[in-house]
Every structure is written in C-alpha cells, then in structure tokens.
Amino acid sequence: MLSSDHAEIVRATLPAVAAHGTRITGEFYAAMFAAHPELRNLFNQGNQANGEQRRALAGSVVAFAEHLVTADSTVPFQQMLSRIAHKHASLGVRPEQYTIVGRYLLDAVAKVLGDAVTPEVHAAWSEVYWLFATLLVAEEARLYQDAMCDPTAPYRPWRVVERRDEAQDTISLVLAPADGGEVPSHRPGQYVSVAVTLPDGLRQSRQYTLSRTTDDTVQITVRRVRGDGRTPDGAVSTFLVAHVSTGDGLELSAPFGDVVMDDEESPLVLVSAGIGITPAAAMIDHLAAVRPGRTVLAVHADRSPRTHALRDQVAAAGSNMADFRQMTWYEELDGAALEGDAAMVRSGRIEVAALPLPPKSRVFMCGPIPFMREIRRGLIRAGVTDERIHYEVFGPDLWNGGG
Ligand SMILES: Cc1cc2nc3c(=O)[nH]c(=O)nc-3n(C[C@H](O)[C@H](O)[C@H](O)COP(=O)(O)OP(=O)(O)OC[C@H]3O[C@@H](n4cnc5c(N)ncnc54)[C@H](O)[C@@H]3O)c2cc1C
Ligand code: HEM
Questions:
Q1: Ligand 1 lined by 221 (C-beta under 6 Å)
Q2: What is the CATH number of the domain that holds 123?
Q3: 200: CA distance to ligand 2 center in Å?
Q4: What secondary structure does DSSP assign to 153-199, as a single string?
Q5: In this structure, are residues 85 and 143 in contact, taking their beta carbons and an 8 Å threshold?
Q6: Of 27, 50, 103, 222, which alpha carbon lies 20 to 30 A from 58's?
Q7: How far, in Å, is the centroid of ligand 2 from the Cα of 394?
Q8: Shared domain check, 106 and 210
Q9: How far is the CA of 47 from the centre of ligand 2 (A)?
C-alpha cells in the first residue's frame, strides 16, 4: 500500500507522468545504457529502436500507479505482474539491477517533468517504483526457485539435433541438452529465451515458444522477420534461420511463461495467426499424448498455405484426438496447395461469428495485438466471458490502449 500523503501526490501527478511516459522512458534508457553499456546485451535492441519497450515500461508503471491510487484501474494487475516477472526470469534479471533501473527511471522523471518534481513528488514516485520492484523481485525469486535456475547463469548449452523447413521463411530446430542434464519441466505454451552472439559481436536474447517437446528434446519454430525497406531485418530470427544448422550449439534459458494450458476438462478453443501458431501446436501435441478426449477447436489465420507453419504437426496430433476440429483462413488461397486437405479452409479473415464455439470453452489466442483485439471483441459478442480468454503476445505487451 502506498502511504496516504504519497497517494495524494501520485494521483495529482499521474496525468503528467502518463502524458510524458514514453519520453521519460526514452530518457531513462539512454542514460542507463550510457552509464551501464553492459546492459545493452540484456535488452532487446530491436525493441529499443522501434520504441516498443519504452511504451511497455511506461505503460506498466502508469498502470501500476493507477492500480495503487484508483479503485477501478483498467489493467488486470496480477496478470501484468506475472507476465513481466516471467519475461524477466527468462532473461535472468537480478534483484540488484532494480537499484540501477530505479535510479535512472526516477532521474528521467525529474528531467522530463522539471520543476514539477519537488522532493515530495520524487519521494512519492520512488515509493511507487519500489513497491512495484519489490513485488517483481519476490515473484521472480519464486520463479527462479521453481525452475531451479540461478539468475547469474540463466542459460544452459543445447545442441541442434535436427533442423527442418516448416514454411516460407520458417524453420524448426530440435534441440537436446549438451551438458548431460535433462530436459527441464515445462508446460505447453511456455517459451525459452535463446541467447546468441550476432556477427557484429552484440549478444542478444529472444523468446521462442517450445512448439513441441519429447522426453529428450525440445523444438522451437522460428519465423524470420524481414525488413520492409524502412525497417531492418530482425536480428536474432535472421541469424537463427540463416546460420544455425544441425550440430550447432545454442544457449537456452529454462522455460517460463504464464499463458499455459490448464488441466481442465472444458473445451479448448485455440486461435492463432501466423507464427502465433507455436503455443497452440504445443498444446495440441501435448493433449494428443495425454488427454486425447478433450474437445479442441483450432482456428488459424495465415497469409497463404505456403506460410502456414506446423500445419502437418497439428494435423497429425489432431488426428489422434477424439473431438478435434480445425478451421483455417488464408488471405491468399492457393488452391493447388490445398488438395486433399481435410481441414476446413476459407479465404479472407477469421469470422468469429462463424466459429462453432463449444459452450464453456476456454480460449487461448496468439497473434498480432490488433488481430487479438478483433477476435476478443467477437468472442465477447458471442458470449465468452473475459476471464476465459487468455492471450500471448510475441513482443512486449503494451498495457495501454486495452483490448
Ligand atoms: C513470449 C514470446 C514467445 C515467442 N515465440 C516465438 C516463436 O515461437 N516463434 C517466433 O518466430 N517468434 C517468437 N517470438 C518472437 C521472437 O521472440 C522475436 O521477437 C522475433 O523472432 C523477432 O526477433 P528479431 O531479433 O529477429 O527481430 P528484432 O531485431 O528484435 O526486430 C524486431 C522488430 O523491430 C524492428 N526494428 C529493429 N531495429 C529497428 C530500427 N532501427 N528501426 C525501426 N524498427 C526496427 C525490426 O524491423 C522488426 O520488425 C516470441 C516472442 C515472445 C515475447
Ligand atoms: C519496477 C521495475 C521494472 C518494471 C516495471 C519493468 C517492466 C517491464 C515490462 C513492462 C517489460 C515488457 C514485458 C513484456 O514483454 O510484456 C519488461 C521487459 C524487460 N525488462 Fe523490465 N521492468 C522493471 C525492472 C527491470 C530491471 C531491473 C531489469 C534489468 C536491468 C529489467 C530488464 C528487462 C528486460 C531485459 C526486458 C525485456 C526487454 C525486451 O524484450 O525488449 N527490467 N520490463
């Protein structure tokens, strides 16, 4: 709880902080990286350049402050805390680093808001920061302990035992532990951080969902992010697709992620777009092995059959289930590629109203944020309650603009 005098100050200054949130975090990152260049490796430099991480950090701090001082904050706080903690844990964020972030973040608030930041305002926002930090540190400590992970050495060596082309620009890498250890415990829907040293020497990590696992191996499925003339090619996905092959070593974190399949009996609806199919594929694979009687409706949107990754994996797992239905929408329908395809295929975009949603379904979505917003609106109109809709974002969640 925020002390009452600080709550008053935070309530009064929240609109100014919210209005300047991304400027504040822009100042923050610039100053922090200047003083601590070693932290550049930890942060995704692509998200720094495109501004997404700035918006995510600012959005989360403003949402947390709102949660503290207003009765009806718009963001589900526990969900936000859990998502950030899992992401941090996959990257090995450590308690002592909160002191560095706190210092540069509060300095940036003072720099951007100028004279408005009196000592009292500074103290009030410092309390907000440390309340948030304390909750995150505690949650991360629990995650590290459960994963038996030492945050000072978050990565283990793995070896690629198979590389497979999945679809246009998309590969799967099957990996086995290279340190004699076992495949760590994990739940369908979780991801690992993959750390690579890029040709320019920069070390970078990205998250990749475990798209399938066996007792001895894990599989990740990577889509190469292409630049569009104005933006560059994705650094890590391009490296993995262009340079990694069977026999190569890769460093992987323990599995983390809180958007995981439950153990309920209720029907499952999995809605995905593009490479967002990876968590759904993992869930279907798992269910086919351990609970083949569960009702599953798998709904997928893709550009065309050529870009549709893991189609065969999903179809093979689905064929081992008693009540599995698949519906696919392609923006560009390539008739020839669909010959003999038993799955229901349509052209255009997913029409939620056309989905045969089983009653009391639990829904998992993964795809671009605008896609998921549109699907969520359709699901709510169709009577699915918000608490039964779960989603994964393949980038920083923005915690503003809602859904
Ligand atoms: C939980 C989670 C699970 C994920 N699972 C998967 C998965 O299973 N499979 C998968 O393929 N991906 C997955 N991802 C996405 C993955 O982690 C990476 O984000 C993705 O591969 C892109 O990384 P990159 O290094 O190639 O691109 P980056 O280099 O990080 O670039 C990202 C974007 O920023 C743009 N950008 C970079 N620099 C600039 C600049 N200077 N100016 C403007 N724009 C710029 C790039 O053009 C690109 O569009 C997942 C992400 C998360 C968070
Ligand atoms: C109270 C303090 C902090 C808050 C509120 C915070 C908030 C966030 C948020 C909202 C995200 C995006 C999560 C998502 O993917 O949706 C994030 C990611 C991240 N955070 Fe933090 N964070 C804090 C402290 C720290 C610290 C101390 C470090 C370590 C120096 C750190 C390092 C990172 C990194 C490396 C990422 C991933 C960046 C990326 O993928 O671009 N954070 N954090």
A1: yes
A2: 1.10.490.10
A3: 24
A4: S-EEEEEEEEEEEEETTEEEEEEEESSS-PPPP--TT-EEEEEEE-T
A5: yes
A6: 222
A7: 15
A8: no
A9: 12
Task: Count structural domains, the chain.
Answer: 3
User: What is 41-57 written as a DSSP string?
Assistant: TTS-HHHHHHSHHHHHH
Pocket residue to mutate for ligand 2, from 40, 87, 130, most atoms within 8 A of Cβ: 87
398 part of a folded domain: no
Do residue 98 and residue 68 come from a single domain?
yes
Claim to verify: residue 316 and residue 225 sit in the same structural domain = no
Contact 138, 93 (CB under 8 A): no
Q: Is 402 within the bounds of a domain?
A: no
Domain CATH code at residue 318: 3.40.50.80
The reply to whether 172 and 139 lie within a common domain is no
Residue 261 belongs to some domain of the structure = no
- Supply 242's token pair: 């262009």
225 C-alpha to ligand 1 centroid (Å): 7
Element (H, E) at 272: strand 268-273
Q: Whose CA is nearest to atom 35 of ligand 2?
A: 43
Q: Which residues are catalytic?
A: 98, 140
From first to last of its 403 residues, the chain has per-residue pLDDT tens of: 789 999 999 999 999 999 999 899 999 999 999 999 999 999 998 888 888 888 888 889 999 999 999 876 667 889 999 999 999 999 999 999 999 999 999 999 999 999 999 999 999 999 999 999 999 999 999 999 999 999 999 999 999 999 999 999 999 999 999 999 999 999 999 999 999 999 999 999 999 999 999 999 999 999 999 999 999 999 999 999 999 999 999 999 999 999 999 888 899 999 999 999 999 999 999 999 999 999 999 999 999 999 999 999 999 999 999 999 999 999 987 654 554 455 588 888 999 998 999 999 999 999 999 999 999 999 999 999 999 999 999 988 766 543 3
Q: Where in the sequence is the domain holding 21, given as residue range(s)?
A: 4-146
Mutate to test the pocket of ligand 2, among 40, 75, 84 (most ligand atoms within 8 A of CB): 84
Q: Which of 146, 178, 205 is the last residue of a domain?
A: 146
Ligand 2 atom showing the smallest separation from residue 61 Cα: 5
